[in-house]
Amino acid sequence: MSKKFDYGIRRLADCQNIEDFRELARRKLPFPVYHYIDGAADDEVTKDRNTVAFDDVDLVPNVLAGAEKVDASVTVMGRKTTLPLMLSPTALQRLFHWQGERAVAAVAEKFGLWFGISSLASVSIEEIGARFKGPKMLQYYYHKDKGLNAALLEKARAANFDAVTLTVDTIVSGNRERCKRTGFTTPPRFTPASALSYAIKPRWALDYIFREKFELPNVASPEDLANNVSLSVQDYFNTRLDPSMGWKDAEQLRNDWGGTFCLKGIMSVEDARRAADMGCDAIMVSNHGGRQLDGSRSPFDQLDAIVQAVGGRCEVILDGGVRRGTHVLKALATGATAVSGGRLYLYALAAAGEAGVDRAITLLEEEIIRAMKLMGVTRIDQLTPDKIVRR
Q1: d(CA 49, CA 164)
Q2: Is 357 in contact with 21 (CB distance < 8 Å)?
Q3: DSSP strand pairing (338-341 vs 388-390)
Q4: Does the bond joining 202 to the residue before it have cis omega, within 30 degrees of 0?
Q5: Beta bridge partners of 74
Q6: Where are the beta strands (DSSP E) in the chain?
Q7: Is residue 318 a contact partner of residue 299, using CB atoms and an 8 Å limit?
Q8: What is the mean pLDDT of the segment spanning 345-351?
Q9: Of 3, 133, 153, 280, which one's alpha carbon is 20 to 30 angstroms from that of 49?
């Protein structure tokens, strides 16, 4: 990885890349909240590998190609988008900035990108469907409560969501040690150990206390709301999600939904083939940002084998580790339909709300376009395997 320098990132205008947004988010957030975004499972080896893996592949440019005008658009799950970039569904966004999912949805709509909200979103499915017209997916957690499972589908259908994406790698929570050390819960519990970290970030604290009450409107039960229940994400996964979920359940969910359907969390060739056999429209090659099984492969390391295994029978979306426009090009040249990421915009959301997300996506768009020109390609389909070499 390239050497990092301390450029004194203090404001949005100082941010020139995703790592800069990460630093600004660190400065602005209480440490339990920052470490929830930044942390992962166990020793965080997989989280780090997700990004480092791109360094093992080199781009091979062509020159004198006349790349004055570049078209970076692709079609993903039936919707044309201006960039081969998707904003992955992530939970709890109004904890990171009071604008939360509304800010991310607005930027996705502006740029014409796919945007996903989590079942654990802090804004309702109904509101997102009513306010934003761009392509959107519901990231679906399979709960023990079958009534809740059915209700999530009905809400997505009524709100005209374009796809449902079932997350398949969370039947038990990963060991998120940073969250255990900081005591992070949803909503936050102010303990003697954590109180100071919230107090010294007054802007965040004032927004949290005086703006709209933090809730998880799509999954919270009346009892949770009445009792102001706080849970860690680990506790939520371990107590409320169904560890018996299997392929028959996934197929039944696809049939119940009846529309565009994606599986998120596919990492093995065997599972990729089975997803294609099942008739999935797309799979997201993902290890949950390294938050689940530490020591697992990075999505980019597995991408080529999975692309070859499905043989075009479903779209393959790379999810995880993307920090640069060149990462996007390497994934596309390996055969991905598009790439998707969460932290790449969460750091920016935490740093500056909608303005931060807008700047982050603008910088990535500029990087993608510039890299395409330097590669001598004018369309995404020209990013073929001969444009990369693995070291």
Answers
A1: 28
A2: no
A3: unpaired
A4: no
A5: 81
A6: 57-59, 74-76, 79-81, 85-87, 115-118, 136-140, 163-167, 260-266, 282-285, 315-319, 338-341, 388-390
A7: yes
A8: 98
A9: 280
CA distances to 67, 101, 103, 322 from 131, rounded to whole Å, are: 37, 11, 12, 28
* % residues pLDDT > 70 (the chain): 95
Q: How confident is the model at residue 224 (pLDDT cuts 50, 70, 90)?
A: low
Of 28, 118, 58, whose CA–CA distance to 391 is shortest?
A: 58
Q: What are phi and psi of 125, to 5 degrees?
A: -55, -40
Instruction: State in Å, rounded, how far the first CA of the chain is from the last one.
Output: 15
For the residues of 299-325, what is the DSSP string, one character each? HHHHHHHHHHHHTTSSEEEEES---SH
Residue 38 has pLDDT above 50, yes or no: yes
Residue 190 is predicted with a pLDDT of 74
Amino acid identity for residue 121 in this structure: A
Q: Which listed residue (35, 97, 143, 288) is catalytic? A: 288
Rounded Cα gap, residues 289 and 50, in angstroms: 8
In the block, residue with structure tokens 């390294």: 290
Q: CB–CB of 22/347 below 8 Å?
A: yes
Secondary structure of residue 284 in the 3-state scheme: strand
CB 82 within 8 A of CB 73: yes
Alpha-carbon dihedral angle through residues 167, 169, 175, 178, given to the nearest 10 degrees: -40
The C-alpha atoms of residue 341 and residue 321 are separated, in whole angstroms, by: 7
pLDDT digit string, tens, across residues 355-370 = 999 999 999 999 999 9
CB count, 10 Å around CB of 5? Answer: 6
Three-state DSSP at 283 gives strand
Query: What torsion do the CA atoms of 26, 351, 19, 40 make, to the nearest 10 degrees?
Result: 60
CB atoms inside a 10 Å sphere around CB 64: 6
| Confidence tier at 222 by pLDDT (50, 70, 90) | low
Annotated catalytic residue 327: no
Please state the domain extents for the chain: 45-383
CB atoms within 10 A of CB 63: 8
At the second CATH level, the architecture of 45-383 is: Alpha-Beta Barrel (3.20)
